[in-house]
Design goal:
By secondary structure, the chain is α+β, with helices and mostly antiparallel strands. Helices cover 42% and strands 28% of the residues.
Length: 471
Amino acid sequence: MRVERKSKNRSTGDHAEFRQLKLETLESRQKSAEEELRFRSVLLDSATDSVFVRDFEGKLIYVNEAAYKTRGYTKEELLALPLQKLRSPKHAEDVDSLVKTLMKTKGAAVYETEHLRKDGTLMPVEVNARIIKSGGRKVIVSIVRDITERERAEKALRQSEEKYRTLYLTMAQGVLYRDADGTITSANPAAERIFGMTLDEMKSKPLDDPIWSAIDEEGSDMRGDMYPSMVALRTGKVVRNTVMRIFNQKEKGYRWISVNAIPQFRPGKKRPYQVFTTFDDITERKRAEEQLAYLATHDCLTDLANRRSVEEALKRAVARARRRSASALLFLDVDNFKLVNDTLGHAAGDKVLIALTHRVRKNLRTEDMLARLGGDEFAVLMEGIGIETAWTIAERMRRAVESFPFALGEHSFNLSLSIGLVLVSGNQDPSLLLSKADNAMYTAKEHGGNQIVLYEPNGVLVELAPEPDPL
């Protein structure tokens, strides 16, 4: 009987030990779960994104620190807040519609909306929502990111792009982009206007097409592979201030442009992936420069070459004379021209000079250079002829002026020419030729005018014109 009682006592002790062990295990698990929850709570509260957990009826179950602080609430206030109060009126989606969206997207959805802060201001947000199971039921967990700065950056980028797009479209400077193969990929309206082609037309034409006809500043034809943009692509170097003429397809004429080509590289790459080309239409500037250059070498009244042009031409004539190419220089002065100015004024005198210019020009060869030196003094440079032929031409001019009455209204004037003639040889100083011809002309005037005087190295001789005129 003692043995049975001892076994019963041992059995009762075993049960008590088991219950104690079970209790300790449960307490340990609960403590671990509580620690896990605290860890998750600390982890979620340290997140910069807002975390919302709500049920399918729209009631908030959990919010992290970022959720209530960024919206100006306490945790208790936000948990008690109806979900609709968080949304902007224009984004007031109801919970049912969100749940339907989540169901259709297999329990996950990403969208942008606006949340309403406690002070009434709006917060643009990006929401990443999904359905999960928690505690035996389904809930909606939303990770919400404040995208205020991103939207500001995107807005600034859009404004910047719009600003530069407007600049690109409205600027007077032409802009072209070519890819690594030289194909045009973009052109602004100014480029289309300068080239007289649309972007589609440009894209369809290879560089060797005659439509891209161009001429460099020296007047030589420019091949397509010598365009600044192609040189920049080939060398990888910037090409600046290249002046060239391109053919405008609409105007059917050339336009002057000044070109800059800038190759562009991707990070770590040595070969350009495209080239950015800008060009200014300098046609008007070039025309102005050409006009100034023309005015610098021509007389503005008669449109003849001026003294400067004659002096430069004499240098070339002396150089050619060294190669046995003879030339002659005439110095002309209008006799009695002062009478026209004194009688009718300088405006009338200008008209007479223009008429006299036409009269003299008709009696010269096409290749002869007629210049006005100033006032009523002129010069004629005749290249490729000897002294006899030059004398004959001078005589013909003298007769043409002598026999022509210059009429202005009721007034008529009989004018004549005093002409000095000098031979242009290779051993002469070009700067002294005009003064020698001038001396011969003054000798003609001293002998009564209306005659030709030849200047010779040993002195000035008065000679008669040959008869008859063989020309």
